[in-house]
Amino acid sequence: MTALPASFPFQRIALVGKYLDPAAGNAVHRVTGEIAEFLTAQGCTVHLETNTAQAAGLTRFPTLDVPGIGAICDLCVVAGGDGTMLGVGRELARFGTPLVGINQGRLGFITDIAINEYRTALPPILAGEHEEELRALIQGQVWREGRVVFEAYAMNDVVVHRGASTSMVELRVEVDGHFVANHRADGIIAATPTGSTAYALSAGGPLLHPQVPAWTLVPIAPHTLSNRPVVLPASLEIAIEIISGQQASASFDTQSFSALRQGDRIVMRRSAHSVRFLHPRGWNYFDTLREKLHWNEGGV
Question: Catalytic one among 82, 112, 157, 253?
Answer without folding.
Answer: 82
